[in-house]
Amino acid sequence: MQSTGSMIVPKKLKSRRFIRRLKREKTLWLISGVALAWLFIFAYVPMLGIVTAFFNYIPGRSFADLDFVGLRYFREFFSLPDFMQILRNTLVISGLNLSVGFAAPIIFALLLNEIVIRPFKRVVQTVSYLPYFVSWVVVASIMFTLLSANGTINEVLISLGLIDSVIPFLNRPSMFWGIMIIANIWKNVGWTAIIYLSAIAGVDQELYQAGAVDGLGRLGRVWHITLPGIRPTIILLFILGIGNLLNTGFEYQLLVGTPMTRDVYEVVDTYVFRYGIGLGRYSFAVAVGLLKSVIGFSLVIGTNYISKKLSDISII
Amino acid sequence: MKKRITALLLAALFVAALASCNTPGTPTEQTPWNPVGEPNEFGWIRPEETLRITVFGGENDPVRRAEDLKGGLAYMNAWLLEHMNVVIEWEVYAQNVTERLNLMLADGSYPEVLIAVPDDMANRFAAQGRAVDLSPYLESHLPNMTRRVGDYMNMLRTDDGKLYKLPSGWGDNPNVPGHDFGIRYDLWLELGVDEIYTTPEEYYETLKAILANHPTNADGQKTYAFTATNWSGDQGTFMLRAFLAAYGFNHDGPGAGVQYLHNKEDGSFRHWLRTDEGREISLLMNRMWREGMIDPDYLSTTYDDYISKLATHRVIGNLGTWWYAWVGGHEIWSVENPDYQIEQRFMNVSITGPGVPYEETRLLTQNFLGNRGDRVIITDKCNQIEAVLAFIDWQASELGNMITGWGPPVETNNWWIDENGMWVVSDDIIDNVSQKNIYFHDTRERHGANTHNIGGNVNWLRCDGRSVFDRIDPRVTRVSIFDYWPVDPETGEFTDPGTRISWGNYKAPAFDTILYNTSFDPEARVTQIRATMIDMLPVWWANIMTADSEEACLRAIDDSLAAAENLGLAVLEQFYKDNYEANYAKMFGN
């Protein structure tokens, strides 16, 4: 028997209720069952591999034959000569993604929402999310074509007489982060804006009418009606996004980065790719991945807690 | 109850994960190799039952290989089946070899034979009992390979004398040039200079004079002395390495990762950043950069861009590998330009550092056991070791080597065997050396050249005291499975006048770097130090070469040296010293 408050519910009754519910919701369980099975097999079962972070893993040897090394790889990561530089680059790039990169789709969605000519709005929206499907390899190729010393931008600027000599956009460390964020925004703004557009579509239209009656202009309606209306969406996406604070990816850095910009593009992911997986040091790669996941998870929980306290909006 | 069941399930999963890594295979029962009969015209005793060999062939595109656009794979499959009764089943993956091999180790899914195995991975297979000790089979089943590889085989033995790995891609370097200090021959002729340059300073002056005469190409684009590719192994470092080679700096074996000077007197190994020679080279290249002689886009130039810049006369020198200038120069101009003259080509020139004899340079290097440092291993999955070794040894025989490399000797191919037993090459390839892609490579690829090379020599097929290639047509020299050069049988001179121009001023002999071979354990500290040094080299070199002034260049050298020392440079230098001494002892038994 188990007790719920003052009422004692017999176990048998609980299980009968569960079975009845299962039968009532069998279609939902059938639909989600495949996804849950996939999640279990490909996301949860592989988590057992995190034990690799605590062993000196050599492919082909069973764990019984391996040396337990404890926190060695975690200590090694923190004591890297370039650790502070790698961390700085990671936090800066993520920070830019979380600030500028996070705000851009919101602003874009708000602007798109204000377009009244529907065909034009559809064309703009379609064109805006096409870059999402372009791979980073193609993006890198576009960057080289535009920004190299003999690229389009330099040629145009020189022909207009705005500069005397070429600007090495891709070799200047001071420009790397800015160019990367612009490329990121160009690639993702349209796709991410879809979520905000659907949230905006859910705002009650009567509020806009009431706002107009109260004398609100366009900007006023955006500030006082639209933004508060999509605030839950913004907060939820921010909570999810903050979990990726240490995940900057590595495609752009490896494709567009040059030796001249290495000091600003080397991030945790590129380091692990080169010196973890590239050298066959899987334990080290797993340890850093585990560290990132723990930090990301903690950030999500923490941000969720703060959000719940301040705005009563949370994902958990 | 629920909690107990959940805990039990988790524990079971955990145990399953721990036990899931497979253990080394137990030795399989061996099928003896006793083919009956006499060797056929190709030196092989054809077995009654088809010999099937499964081979991991390294990193390759399986789709493209299966497409077999030129039909060479199918041709060779049919030929091997008909004349040898052998079928080779290849496994290739479009994946980094080390990653794939680690996956194979983890799940035990590897075939009988692995080729293109990096040395440290071969050691890993051996350490886990997954590679077969071949030392009992050397004399009986690998007589050709043993003869031709000779004492070099000692370098592959373990400390206790076992032999788990065979060389892959072995042999002497057949090339004339290696690192070159190339220049446009026609533009050099315009200068009216009698003697070719022989020192770095003379090279610089010559380049400067040509650039002054030709500041732009026909399209008005600025010309440069050099450019580079953005390939991770280059990124401008080929320029540095060429000069270091001219000054006698070694590199640490296949891949040319780290460059240092080996002092034979005190046995020390000094990284180039520590040396006066390194500074001299850096200041020269920095001067060239500041004078606008180097392409500012060198860090973002692809290989195709590089070739295009050579072909469109935007780059008039070459500090890379010699074939860039070959492919991007006269091979294109001779086809596109109806008024082409052979003087319009790149001349590959050798120079030395001041006071450095050619014998001490590392301009043209070779690694007898394979330039990539890869190995062949027979795994514990193989139940027909004798048969597999017999086939590998056939490929190491002189005739087997030639067939494996050039395709079978038939008159539709580039070569055949005449009534006197001589290996005659076609007149087409003698007469069309500047069109090798069409007359040589295309033909040999259609006949399956190099599609089934398991353990064969890929380099110079010549008489050298161990190998006997005395039947090759005397009209060609420097024959390898990839190449050949027509010569006058009487004088030994290249018959193609263009080739004589291109290589007439390249004097460096080949230097065997075998004693500098290194193998790196992934978990060892030196491995990480070395990997970081290799990754940082393009960064340091970029900072040094592109510094705004001579003082800034020297500061960049000091900063790079400080960074290298912080990484553990001294540890690496000591490792190279110890490694060299160990290799020497292994090779010569001292």
Task: Give me the secondary-structure topology.
The complex is a heterodimer of chains A (316) and B (590).
Chain A: E1 2-4, E2 7-9, H1 11-24, H2 26-44, H3 72-78, H4 83-113, H5 118-129, H6 136-147, H7 152-159, H8 173-201, H9 205-213, H10 218-229, H11 231-242, H12 251-256, H13 262-265, H14 268-277, H15 282-311
Antiparallel strand pairs in A: 1-2
Helix pairs in contact in A: 3-15, 4-8, 5-8, 9-10, 11-15, 14-15
Chain B: H1 2-19, E1 51-59, H2 62-67, H3 72-84, E2 86-93, H4 97-107, E3 113-118, H5 119-127, H6 138-141, H7 143-149, E4 166-167, E5 182-184, H8 185-190, H9 200-213, H10 237-246, E6 250-251, E7 259-262, E8 269-271, H11 276-290, H12 303-311, E9 317-318, H13 322-328, H14 330-336, E10 346-347, E11 364-366, E12 374-378, H15 385-396, H16 398-406, E13 415-417, E14 423-425, H17 427-431, H18 436-446, E15 476-477, E16 485-486, H19 497-503, E17 510-512, H20 525-545, H21 550-567, H22 569-588
Parallel strand pairs in B: 1-2, 1-3, 11-17
Antiparallel strand pairs in B: 3-12, 4-12, 5-9, 5-10, 6-7, 7-8, 13-14, 15-16
